[in-house]
Write a structure and sequence with these properties.
The chain has 251 residues and is an alpha/beta fold. The protein contains seven helices and six strands. It has a single domain, classed as Decaprenyl diphosphate synthase-like (Undecaprenyl pyrophosphate synthetase), CATH 3.40.1180.10. Bound molecules: 3-methylbut-3-enyl trihydrogen diphosphate (2 copies) and magnesium ion. Keywords: Magnesium, Metal-binding, Transferase.
Length: 251
Amino acid sequence: MTSSLPPLAPSEVEGNSAEGSVPRHVAIIMDGNGRWAIRRSLPRVAGHRAGAEAVRRTMQAAVDSGVEVLTLYAFSSENWRRSEDEVSDLKGLMRFYLERELGTLQKEKVRLRLIGEPAAFGNELYERLQQAVEETRDNDRLTLVVALNYGSQGEIAGAAKALARAARDGALDPETIDIAAIEGLLHTCDLPPLDLLIRTSGEVRLSNFLLWQAAYAELHFVDTLWPDFDEAAFNSALGEFARRQRRFGGR
Ligand code: IPE
Ligand code: IPE
Ligand code: MG
């Protein structure tokens, strides 16, 4: 089966560690807003509001560090299990920060992208999001990917369904289905491979985020609650990444 293995990219060749290198693609599971608020005897929405400020700081840190893509898990396909009030607060905050930060995205040359199924948030918010994606499409300093109503298992199931339909319709020989065929149908298909995945708040799980894409990502778990995350915490994660040795199955 060795012949079916794709050749390693230059950054993946034997003996080439991540040493000294800046990850091209960093993703973050921004967790701990609720606990941050509870510790201050505040409503959960105050934690989400403070979390949005952490998004601003982190985006700026990513721009300054030369990271190409920052992917943020903002709402999972399982977060609908929360109360109607909390979901509505989160939608309101998304809208508010989108309006407030659009100028910053333009000034810092940040291109907004979405993954997941954000249409479920309703026409008004969805159209505004799409418009922001359109307005920032030519920015080239950082790609900010926001995962909205995203679930990795659903994403992979969607790819399987598309392949099965093509095979049923005679447009695809099932024998030709390989890793690239599935990857090409994921929401992240045009993004560089995920290098570093960070989760805040002390939880050590992936919660249905980028399961396929994390195959060879470096994982970084910190106890910091998301609203307390800042440039120093981001740079510390990049520093640890630079000390890791990536092997990709080689020696
Ligand atoms: C992450 O913080 C934000 C979202 C999932 C939208 P949480 O709201 O999950 O905070 P905790 O985990 O309850 O502290
Ligand atoms: C993951 O956090 C989702 C986001 C950060 C948007 P959760 O708080 O929803 O994850 P679990 O429920 O603790 O696994
Ligand atoms: Mg949580």
